[in-house]
Specification:
Number of domains: 3
Helix content: 55-70%
Structural class: mainly alpha
Order of helices and strands: HHHHHHHHHHHEE
Distance between the termini: 57 Å
Radius of gyration: 37 Å
Shape: elongated
Strand content: under 5%
Number of strands: 2
Strand order of the largest sheet: 1-2
């Protein structure tokens, strides 16, 4: 119930505070007056600090009247909440310069989301370290060089997303069980005169077809990658324009 206000006031145990515990409650009131509210002068806080005294409830009731708390001593939760509100207002008043330029948490999250949406905005593409890093990655991944290092970086990203993610690696690592092939159903188209050589030729032909299929798959992937780069026009964020 009081966690947010206690956290704002840097209370040592905002999550575990229990106002129903008499000792903890009295210590809390002393801390609140000493550190945050400071309504009394230091020399006038003796009765409030004497938390083991039988007269402490009377001292606290007087304190409530002195700070103009509208609740009764029996209304403990309401009293604590009101005193915390008073402390927060005083804390802000004492540190107005500290808080006036602070950004709300929600706004920070929105700003961070916007930055994350465009991770390349703040990159200095002319930085030698950036160029060296992109070139090293391109060489490692065997990606074709390009005059625009940002284009190379995007190509690297596409390759990593398609080939080096955990799912892609796991899929590639899975053993492929071969299916039985009936060679007699595949016509060779010629006859060598030797049954064994004919069978070997059929096997080689099937393997060649499989290699052609893999090559076609890689060609299709390359076309998709190139299209992704071409379809993403170069953006000049300083001018607020898209295109060259």
């Amino acid at each position: 119930m009081f966690r947010r206000k206690l956290s704002a006031l840097d209370y040592h145990n905002p999550a575990g505070f229990n106002c129903r515990d008499e000792t903890e409650f009295r210590n809390f009131i002393v801390w609140l007056e000493d550190q945050k509210i400071r309504h009394y002068k230091i020399e006038d806080r003796g009765n409030l600090r004497n938390i083991h005294s039988d007269d402490w409830p009377k001292s606290f009731e007087k304190y409530m009247k002195d700070v103009n708390c509208p609740f009764k001593i029996q209304e403990r939760q309401e009293t604590v909440d009101w005193l915390l509100g008073l402390a927060v207002r005083l804390e802000y008043g004492d540190n107005a310069d500290k808080y006036k330029d602070s950004t709300p948490e929600g706004a920070k999250n929105t700003e961070n989301t916007a930055k994350n949406a465009e991770p390349l905005i703040n990159l200095d593409v002319n930085n030698p370290d950036f160029k060296a890093g992109v070139m090293a990655l391109a060489n490692l991944l065997q990606i074709q060089r390009h005059d625009d290092y940002l284009v190379m970086l995007k190509a690297i990203r596409i390759l990593v997303q398609e080939r080096l993610t955990q799912d892609a690696i796991a899929k590639a690592s899975q053993s492929k069980e071969g299916l039985p092939v009936a060679l007699e159903k595949h016509i060779l188209g010629f006859d060598t005169g030797d049954a064994v050589i004919n069978e070997a030729a059929q096997i080689l032909r099937l393997l060649h077809i499989e290699e052609l299929r893999e090559l076609q798959t890689k060609i299709n992937e390359a076309i998709v990658a190139v299209q992704a780069i071409i379809a993403d026009p170069k953006t000049d964020h300083r001018l607020g324009k898209v295109g060259r």
